[in-house]
Amino acid sequence: MSSIQTKTILNTIINDDCIKVMNQMEANSVDLIFADPPYNLQLGEALTRPDNSNVSGVYEEWDSFESLAAYDHYTREWMTAARRVLKDDGAIWVIGSYHNIFRVGYILQDLGFWILNDIVWNKTNPMPNFKGTRFTNAHETLIWAVKNPKAKYTFNYEAMKALNEDTQMRSDWQIPLCTGKERLKGEDGGKLHPTQKPEALLYRVIMASSNVGDVVLDPFFGTGTTGAVAKKLGRNFIGIEKDRTYVKGAQARIDAVQRVENELCLEFSSKKRQPRIPFGTVVERGLLNPGDILYDANKKHCAAVRSDGTLKSEKMEGSIHQVGAAAENAPACNGWVYWYFEDKEKGLVCIDELRTQIRQELYGE
User: Fold this and answer.
1) Is 312 a residue whose pLDDT tops 90?
2) Could you give the CA distance from residue 4 to residue 273 in angstroms, rounded to a whole number?
3) pLDDT for the residue numbered 45
4) Fewer beta carbons within 10 angstroms: which end of the chain, N or C?
5) SS3 letters for 281-330?
6) How does the average pLDDT of the chain come out, rounded?
7) What are the pLDDT digits (tens) for 350-365?
8) Neighbours of 222 (CB within 10 A)
9) Residue 159 or 46, more confident
10) Are 88 and 113 in contact (CB under 8 A)?
């Protein structure tokens, strides 16, 4: 039975077992989950380089399971608990390697999750395969999923496109491993956590699938990358971590992060969020008049504006989108950016400027 109210644990790290904690949390209470569970690497003998120096691998107890069946049971338990606390329109991201990601994906689907994408994180500086017995393991996989196919999940498409220099972001991400100053060190000077994820990776995940003020849960919090990035981006976080040493390091790390004072800097443009303006509104308001002629950017095609907000060209009559598509013999067309009108002072002006003007007048946007 639920006993932990989400608002009481916002922006805190809970030093406990994630399955136990999530089963006590409010149901349907978090917007986004990022899970970096044990990979069950089964490394066995210590890895060495050609010069016989040791390779820093994952030998911690938390990554050891007596069998694949035991790992599957554990995975099913934490995913069931995670599904319970996730909002109906929330999303979950799970990261893994070839050791576990196929089992993780199978169980996700068994539990009713709907997979939206798998993302390949290509490590630009991967660890070599020192023995030369396999390909260099240069990537990990992230699965992005929601609770059901009809979920109205968040995807900040325009923001991701802007991050990628105005080019649609692909499902293969080129990001280096966590190194240098970003890597947390223990008292012995070595890595505090063997699998600390780079902040750049979490930046994309959180930016893509959450909004300012949302609650991001990380049930395998480790050294707090999720919390640090969430704080930078104006989101709330909840971290759950069993290891006290990791909790101490994560807390110090997050305490050092400064929140952005001007929250307007955390917002971003999104065409999906902007109020819909029919082209007929442009005609109603007298910004264009019946009989005015619209042109494509090269003045190769033209069409006349009609009183009901439709266009008429030599080929057809219909909406600004339909007539534009017909002009280009294309299956679809965004008429707002295709058509231009002649201005005596400015020359050809895109009709989308008129839509922007109306939005500013009506909604202050």
Assistant:
1) yes
2) 33
3) 57
4) N
5) HHHHCCCCCCCCEEECCCCCCEEEECCCCCEECCCCEECHHHHHHHHHCC
6) 89
7) 999 999 999 888 877 5
8) 24
9) 159
10) no
What does the alpha-carbon distance between residue 160 and residue 157 come to, in Å, rounded to a whole number? 5
Asked whether the beta carbons of 184 and 252 are under 8 A apart, the reply is no
Helix, strand, coil distribution of the chain in percent, nearest 5: 35, 20, 45
pLDDT band at 341 (very low <50, low <70, confident <90, very high): very high
Neighbours of 246 (CB within 10 A): 24
Distance CA 122, CA 44 (A): 25
**What is the model's pLDDT at position 165?**
86
- For 9-36, give the DSSP string: STTEEE-S-HHHHHHHBPTT-EEEEEE-
Please report the pLDDT score of residue 49 as a whole number.
43
Distance between CA atoms of 317 and 304, rounded to whole angstroms?
9
46 has pLDDT over 90:
no
Element holding 218 (H helix, E strand)? strand 215-218
| pLDDT, mean of residues 61-76 | 85
Buried b (16+ CB within 10 A) or exposed e, 267-291: eeeeeeeeeebebeebbeeebbeee
CB 214 within 8 A of CB 236: yes
Query: Which CA distances in Å does 362 have to 26, 215, 307?
Result: 39, 32, 22
Sequence-ordered list of residues with C-beta below 8 angstroms from that of 27, at least 6 positions apart, any chain? 2, 84, 85
Looking at residues 178-206, what average pLDDT do you find?
Answer: 84
What's the pLDDT score for residue 64? Answer: 75
Q: pLDDT value at position 242?
A: 94
Task: Return all residues near 349 (Cβ < 8 A) that are at least 6 apart.
Answer: 340, 341, 342, 343
Neighbours of 331 (CB within 10 A): 6
Do residues 122 and 173 lie in contact, with contact meaning Cβ atoms separated by under 8 Å? yes
Query: Cα torsion for 238, 30, 271, 156, to the nearest 10°?
Result: 50
The SS3 of residue 120 is strand
Number of H helices, E strands in the chain: 11, 14
Q: Residue 34: name the closest of 170, 203, 155 by CA.
A: 203
**Residue 204: how many other CB atoms lie within 10 Å:** 20
Amino acid identity of residue 201, one-letter, is L
